[in-house]
Amino acid sequence: MDAYADRLEAAITSKSSPLCVGLDPRLDKLPADVRAAAGGDPGKALLRFGLEVLDLVAPHAACVKPNLGFFEAFGLGGLAAYAGIVAGARTRGLLVIGDGKRGDLSTTAEAYAQAHLAPGGDFEVDALTVAPYMGADSLAPFVEVAAAHGKGLYVLVRTSNPGAADLQDLDVGGARVYERTAAMVRAVGERHRGRSGLSCVGAVVGATWPEQLRALRAALPTTPFLVPGYGAQGATAADTAAAHLAGGRGAVVNASRSVTFPTPKDPTTPWRAAVEAAARAAKEELDAARRRVV
Amino acid sequence: MDAYADRLEAAITSKSSPLCVGLDPRLDKLPADVRAAAGGDPGKALLRFGLEVLDLVAPHAACVKPNLGFFEAFGLGGLAAYAGIVAGARTRGLLVIGDGKRGDLSTTAEAYAQAHLAPGGDFEVDALTVAPYMGADSLAPFVEVAAAHGKGLYVLVRTSNPGAADLQDLDVGGARVYERTAAMVRAVGERHRGRSGLSCVGAVVGATWPEQLRALRAALPTTPFLVPGYGAQGATAADTAAAHLAGGRGAVVNASRSVTFPTPKDPTTPWRAAVEAAARAAKEELDAARRRVV
Q: Among B104, B156, B170, whose Cβ lies nearest the Cβ of A180?
């Protein structure tokens, strides 16, 4: 299989879209017709909604990012829905980033990597988000499994929330903790680059921190970025431009609630039309921002 | 329900044991008879082994700590085994720490907390391990759910691996990152203390770092500790003494492989007898170390 970064770049180019649609389905926000058709079964409702959203956004998104937490919340039935959605994304030709923020040591890290990145598993996706607190040796087993199977990782570097500052911004003698995390990401990923020149080890960098985004982009010229914070969290399409390398390469921008639970100007808009329109609009403005990066 | 810390202290006292048995079942290491009885179904093998281990260690352990990664690796069938084991632990009167090292923001953090700490879910446990990189606001939803249901958390503060030093040891102007994490743990947990005086928000601190363990114990006098590193990872029972508060309170010490996959002196020892003996021996030496803390 081609390297993850190469497959993602091809998807961005062929769809003219750096949009990643995040699937964060809260049961109480699902459309009434979806809930009714599921007959009160949370897992069935999540699966039905997820597959419908995949159909609606597939023309506009380079990839999708289901968040494991929202499925895990409903136990085995919820995770069966997650498995159904990642399989459904594959048949629709959409790349999938499993947003699990997993992290552990040694054989446990390897077990998580097998769970999400090895071929054939229920939860197999194209890339997984991982947490860096335990250090480089905790990332290594993830990197090995990813590289072996043409898969990717996104390590949390600079998250989009206000509390990101608590640990990530601490000054460690002229640099910040998140910059040290970035250096670690670069070091563990350097050996594993695809034909595009981009590594299989990416970074999560929030668009809500424009200065840090710019500095990290410069410091990590071969690292794919996954950029949260656009849309409901407040960052604009213009803010996301700093995530891209020259030629508009190297980043996808996530939109979750603003696409899957949009607030259309005309509140009588049927939800499917509203989701499709929101995905299209996000794609268009994000791609315009991307193309301005020369 | 009583506060988690109170329930755990009661278990440590009534069993005369600060032992936490970690369940990290690797399929290729399971006893041949367990694998044969499961007929090649990985989930069934994990469940069968887990329930047998619960029976063997129940007299000796204050709690058990199944690691989600080893179950997630086998997809839905693996997680069904996890659900069966946590339910089995409950019926055996064993407290369960779900070792998931979860972490996310806002409603996603709340979703994970619901998944693992709210009553009635497939994955309901007594406490969950969580990762701190995203900051205090990422921990807050976990703390709220835990406090509301008499459940607990253990935040990664100082992990037991060599790479722990990469980020956790960085000098942030007279303190280390892990000390700042510790301060965050104390701050988010301070309001939620049980009758024992101990908080529902605990800390993971490796016994492989004796100096840091001692310093953190002094800095966190109301924080329950979950202490990995004893046994297969090299820390001794004597090393774990520093984890306890006066009176031998406030900590459980994890042993995984050294109990569940022991290497008995007589290699012909049946595996069940070997596991039982390893749990008993670990309990005895850990409790002796605990009782010396006055």
A: B170
Per-residue pLDDT of A200-231, as tens digits, reads 999 999 999 899 999 999 999 999 999 999 98
First to last CA, chain B: 30
Closest Cα in chain A, distance from residue B257 (Å):
12
pLDDT in tens, A123-175: 999 999 999 999 999 999 999 999 999 999 999 999 989 999 999 999 999 99
Burial B95-117 (b: 16+ CB within 10 A, else e): bbbbbbbbbbbbbbbbbbbbbbb
| Residue B1 confidence class, pLDDT cut points 50, 70, 90 | confident
Catalytic residues of B: 101
Chain A residues 130-189 with CB within 8 Å of chain B: 131-138, 156, 159-168, 170-173, 177, 180-181, 184
**Cα A64 to Cα A73, A125, A171, A291, B64, distances in angstroms:** 20, 10, 34, 21, 36
Give the pLDDT of residue A233: 83
Does the CB of A250 have a partner CB in chain B at under 8 Å?
Answer: no
Separation between Cα atoms, residue B20 and residue A215, nearest integer Å: 44
Domain with residue B200: its CATH number is 3.20.20.70
Q: By residue range, what is the domain housing residue A225?
A: 4-291
Contact, B93 vs B7, CB < 8 A?
Answer: no
Cβ pair B73:A160 closer than 8 A: no
Q: How many domains, chain B?
A: 1
Predicted TM-score (pTM) of the model is: 0.98
pLDDT tens digits for range B149-208 = 999 999 999 998 999 999 999 999 999 999 999 999 999 999 999 999 999 999 999 999
Minimum-distance CB partner of A70 among B24, B26, B111: B111
CA distance between the termini of chain A = 30
For residues A275 and B95, what is the distance between their CA atoms, to the nearest angstrom? 44
CB distance A63 to A7 below 8 Å: no
Cα-based distances in Å from A108 to A113, A185, B122, B187: 9, 20, 21, 30
Looking at the predicted complex, does its ipTM rise above 0.95?
Answer: yes
Asked if the C-beta of B277 comes within 8 angstroms of chain A's C-beta atoms, the answer is: no
- Helix (H) / strand (E) containing B135: none
